[in-house]
Specification:
The protein has 85 residues and is mostly helical. It has a domain of 55 residues: Arc Repressor Mutant, subunit A, CATH 1.10.10. α3 crosses α4. The radius of gyration is 15 Å and the shape is elongated. The chain starts with a helix and ends with a helix. The relative contact order is 0.11.
């Protein structure tokens, strides 16, 4: 992201402000949402949620659990089950 910002010749805060204005939340929250969505897609084809979490970019289970609960109100297992319906 830093390289893109430099190549465009804009400040580092500019994309953050634009994200906040357009979506109502910041770039970091968007990154968390996209990573959780990536986890849900990957979880369909993996035997374990741990393997899906690692492939989606989570460093460990507590980060996945935190994102899942904060963004959806559900545990990762509950979210995968609900998403599969």
């Amino acid at each position: 992201m830093t390289e893109l910002i430099r190549s465009l010749g804009i400040s580092e805060r500019s994309p953050r402000r634009r994200c906040q204005d357009a979506l109502g939340y910041g770039a970091k929250t968007l990154e968390r949402i996209l990573r959780l969505q990536r986890f849900l897609r990957i979880a369909r084809s993996h035997a374990t949620l741990t393997a899906a979490a690692l492939e989606a970019g989570y460093g460990d289970a507590p980060h996945l659990v935190r994102d899942s609960r904060q963004l959806s109100g559900l545990s990762p297992r509950e979210l995968v089950w609900q998403h599969a319906r």
